[in-house]
Amino acid sequence: MEFISIEEAMKKGSGKVAVRGWVHRERGSNELKFLVIRDSSDIIQCVLKKAQFKKQWADIDKLQVEASVELEGTVKEDKRAPTGYEISVDKINIVGLSDSFPINKDINEELLGDRRHLWLRSRKMTAILKIRSTVIGALHEYFNEKGFYEFQSPILIPGGAEDGPTMFEVNYFDRKMYLAQTWQLYAEAAMYSLEKIYCVAPSFRAEKSKTTRHLTEYWHTEMEVAWTNLPELMEYAEEMTKHVIKRVLEKNKKELEIIGRDWKKLEPSLKKKFPRVTYDSVLKVLKEKKKMSVPWGKDLRTIEEDKFMEDHDTPVFVTNYPKEIMAFYKPRDPDSPKTALGFDMLGPEENHELIGGSVRDTNLDELKKSLKAKGEKLEDYSYYFDIHSYGAVPHGGFGLGTERLIKWICGLETIKDAIGFPRTMTRWKP
Predict the structure, then answer these.
(1) What is the spatial distance between Cα 333 and Cα 320, in angstroms, rounded to a whole number?
(2) 385 and 291, same structural domain?
(3) Which residue in 258, 5, 281, 248 sits closest to 142, CA to CA?
(4) CB within 8 A of 80, min separation 6: which ones?
(5) Which of 52, 74, 243, 291 is 20 to 30 A from 305, alpha carbon to alpha carbon?
(6) Reduced to 3 DSSP states, what percent helix, strand and coil does the chain have, rounded to the nearest 5?
(7) Are residues 92 and 129 in the same domain?
């Protein structure tokens, strides 16, 4: 018989089927063996009777979790079974044995990290990785529909776009180079060619952080667009986020239920406009409603973001942070010179900053002044000054921490579960 997926077998509902996969759970007696088999599509209970498998019974009885098998039999509906269907097995081929699979329900988080290469087989991680695939596919789909071109930039760069101490240094023949924190400085050059560009690619931040929302290697969704302004950038960010959520709810409700996520908590973000507020107004809300006093000029910490977001069930754009705490390429707002023309999009349910974006500064004197203030070498940015010396135009862009979006959509406790093999300050293998 031709093999079909477990999901297809259950959709068929009755009759002869052939499936293959791995033992997810097993139990039995001297007369019966119950195997719950998994493949990438789902799980199904399979029943084997000793009377039909006298010659193979000794091998069948020894089957353990994660052994791989091929099965033929008759599928039928059975509400007592884990997924509502059962296969009465007529034929079994044991493909690969498994002995004492080293993951069980009592294993702690650190050991799960050590055995990540095996934990990926769990129903939880399988469901998350399917959602992740939908998210990344939807990001590409959104930008393609909006007329953006995909553009790739170097991973090895001579200098950074954010704070120097958070860069990973690389020995590049006889000189120091760094792993890219963002594609932005190169994207601004390509923007003058293609006007509307995006990329979904790895970025690297050497942040000594052990929080549930930081990775040292993460997938960065970035865009850059010519002839834009801050309100338009926020429209792009909101549309993109809504498009991703819509696709996940269309394709992955089953996976969201497997991981225990209440997907109805995502619906307000599809139905409502994301609020736009200023840094000043956030400080006012914190002081008057949350009894938290934040000195003007200080960046918002996670505790302050959480308190502010308690009153919101959708993301919120916060604009006009103090210029002095912003990256060098964010220009001053002409209407509020102490602040920068940028935004953070904060996520609900304690998910903090999901997206950061801004208009880009094309004033060379201001750029050099900001770089000097941050201790950067101007010669490392000579190409960046060059691209704004020939026909500069208003432009801007944003960067999404893709795993942060996945963490929120899936309702995860830690960002480490939003990627197959997480890299953090303390986790560099497997």
Answers:
(1) 8
(2) yes
(3) 248
(4) none
(5) 243
(6) 35, 25, 35
(7) no
Average pLDDT, the chain: 95
Question: CA 308 to CA 294: how far, in whole Å?
Answer: 12
Same-domain check for residues 230 and 376: yes
How far is it, in rounded angstroms, from Cα 383 to Cα 381?
A: 5
Distance CA 161, CA 392 (A): 19
Single out the residue of 180, 184, 158, 164 nearest to residue 374, CA to CA: 164
Q: How many CB atoms lie within 10 A of CB 420?
A: 13
Mean pLDDT for 316-327 is: 96
Domain check: are 147 and 283 in the same one?
Answer: yes
- Candidates 391, 339, 337; CA nearest to 362 is 391
- What phi, psi does 354 have (nearest 5°)? -100, -40
State whether 158 and 36 are in the same domain: no
Check if the beta carbon of residue 226 is closer than 8 Å to that of residue 393. yes
Q: At what angle do helices 230-251 and 402-410 cross, to 10 degrees?
A: 50
pTM for this predicted structure: 0.95
424 occurs within a structural domain: no
Q: Which neighbouring-strand residues pair with 317?
A: 276, 345
Is 101 a domain residue? Answer: no
List the CATH number of the domain containing 42.
Answer: 2.40.50.140
Looking from the CA of 171 toward its CB, the CA atoms found within 13 Å total 2
The token pair that represents 180 in the structure block: 């890219």
Angle of helix 123-145 relative to helix 402-410, nearest 10 degrees?
120
In-domain check, residue 108: no
Amino acid, single-letter form, for residue 61: D
pLDDT of residue 162: 58
Which residues contact residue 430 at a Cβ distance below 8 angstroms, ignoring those fewer than 6 apart?
Answer: 114, 115, 116, 117, 421
Contact 215, 422 (CB under 8 A): yes
**247-260: pLDDT as tens digits:** 999 999 999 999 99
The answer on 317 and 168 residing in a single domain is yes
